[in-house]
Amino acid sequence: MCELKGRKLVLGVTGGVAAYKAAELVRLLGKAGADVHVVLTEGGARFVTPVTYQALSGNRVWTDLWDARMDNNMAHIDLTRGADAVLIAPATADVIAKLVQGRADDLLTTLSLARECPLLVAPAMNRQMWEHPATQRNVAQLAADGATVLGPAAGDQACGEVGMGRMLEPEELLEHVIAFFQPKLLAGRKVVLTAGPTFEAIDPVRGITNTSSGKMGYALAQACARAGAEVVLVSGPTGLPVPAGARRADVRSALQMRDAVMAALPGADVFIGVAAVADYRPADAAEHKVKKSSADMTLRLTPNPDILAEVAARADAPFCVGFAAESRDLDAYAEGKRRAKRLPMLVGNLVQDGLGSDDNLVILYDDAGRHPLERAPKTVVARRIVEHLAGLLKTAAN
Ligand code: CTP
């Protein structure tokens, strides 16, 4: 998890109850590799003190426009020089109004006015304040001025009311920040993916399945969403959370997976088959639980459709990417599958290198040959796959 490595962020914390979540946000941003410099407004400092942010960020915390710790006494200028973004979370109705008016009466508003880098703002306030025409006008103007507004969300509020105005959770804000910095290589593209295993029922409580954590497919869905694509993730049973920015269709069996894929396909530019689809299913699944007996039992299996091959064979086939997890002879099997299913791109790996793990070691295969990637976390591998895919899409379009 080093998606924000080398990024310098100025985090402005203003005076809202959601400031207690800003401490966790600093921790998450730091864990993702960002160098976080916290600036508190007077109100912000009333909720969580600078000590907490200093301990979590490892950097000095700034609160005062007249702070003399900067050599040239110009914290309002120097803090944002070299910064990749200013993120204000939580942003009160008051700070949003000030930003829109270009006021500069404290360190945070002054540096926001003097910055050269992008501004991200995560509003947090009572629902009435959020819905007030003045706030709505201000938020619209802030966005028109080039700021990225993150949230808010609906839900329980600190005041006891329920409605729109909650700050996004720290994990969601982290995801937005990471996505903000990703090149939008798949902007305007629709990507349909399959992920996870399928489960083929023998009876209501038993079935046949493949070993698959779903992590690679989910990481790839997230990487596609971060790259700006519209993403539909058709997923077998995994227990993983829906990646931000993706729409998930939950399925169990290969037949359900095929139906969901075909339903999602219209308008798709790319189809990526990551799922470990069971090649066979019981020919006659029992309606009721099968009772044991001492005699041998025979299960008759019938082949499942090959979803990827079906999609790739369509006259209106999108750009198709396959996966091949092999236990030996990777090059031969992977390239064989790519050719048999007529895929422009395939991702191959040895099962011993990736199954169930957070890391993966893969080789990409396309018409130009084989392209080994370095062993890396699945999230990073996913990003490399997206970069390669975007390159091939661009070539195909020319
Ligand atoms: N796949 C699919 N539908 C299937 C089987 C596989 O869409 N019924 C897709 C997988 O998602 C993967 C690719 O096809 O992208 C390769 O799957 P794999 O099971 O390794 O290939 P098979 O052709 O089934 O070969 P084998 O099981 O003999 O290794």
Describe this structure in words.
The protein is α/β, with parallel strands linked by helices and 398 residues long. Helices cover 36% and strands 25% of the residues. It folds into two domains: 174 residues, Flavin prenyltransferase-like (Rossmann fold), CATH 3.40.50.1950; 208 residues, Rossmann fold (3-Layer(aba) Sandwich). The chain has an eight-stranded mixed beta sheet, sandwiched between helices. The model has no long low-confidence stretch (mean pLDDT 95). Cytidine-5'-triphosphate binds next to helix 12 and strand 16.
Per DSSP E runs of 2 or more residues, the count of β-strands stands at: 21
CATH class of the largest domain: Alpha Beta
> Ends: how far apart?
35 Å
Name the poorly predicted regions. Answer: none
**Residue fraction in strands:** 15-25%
CATH superfamily (homologous) name of the largest domain: CoaB-like
Short description:
36% of the residues lie in helices and 25% in strands.
What is this structure's SSE topology?
Elements: E1 8-13, H1 19-31, E2 35-40, H2 42-47, H3 50-57, H4 75-78, E3 85-91, H5 93-101, H6 107-114, E4 119-123, H7 127-131, H8 133-144, E5 148-149, E6 153-156, E7 162-166, H9 170-181, E8 190-195, E9 199-203, E10 206-209, H10 215-226, E11 230-235, E12 246-250, H11 254-264, E13 270-273, E14 280-282, E15 301-303, H12 307-313, E16 319-326, H13 330-340, E17 345-350, H14 351-354, E18 359-360, E19 362-366, E20 369-372, E21 376-377, H15 378-397
Parallel strand pairs: 1-2, 1-3, 3-4, 4-5, 8-11, 8-13, 11-12, 13-16, 16-17
Antiparallel strand pairs: 6-7, 9-10, 14-15, 17-19, 18-21, 19-20
Helix pairs in contact: 1-3, 1-9, 5-8, 10-15
